[in-house]
Amino acid sequence: MSGVGAGALVGAFGMSRVAPEFLHRVPMASAALFGLFLIFFSQSTNLVLSLVLLVPAGSGLMMQGISTNTLIQTVTTDIMRGRVMAYYVMAFMGMMPMGALAAGWLSHHIGVPETVAFGGAACIACAAIAYVLSRK
Questions:
Q1: Position 56 confidence tier, pLDDT thresholds 50, 70, 90
Q2: Which of 1, 31, 42, 117 is deepest in the core (most CB within 10 A)?
Q3: What pLDDT score was predicted for residue 136?
Q4: pTM for the full predicted model
């Protein structure tokens, strides 16, 4: 948790340096960064290496969360912002228990490292799909 927390701190400070014209690229890049280091972390058996690998993973996670939240709030009209954010938070928080349930089931069948790696690969795949769709 300290590795993820340190990375989240770095990511939060890094987001303050992102120029507004590049903000739309951050969610995809940070999701891919998170996924990549999650895959690396899943293969680590060394505590110190695991701690080091979780720093960029935490940074990617925080940057993705901040940039997505910022983009949603900036593109939403003032009159609809509260409603849109309520749906966003409901979807975000509501999906975590479902994801935990799926991850528990999958880890029981294929193992914990493989499940973590699968989650990282899913993050990278979703980032790639979002990138392709954003280019159209």
A1: very high
A2: 31
A3: 75
A4: 0.89
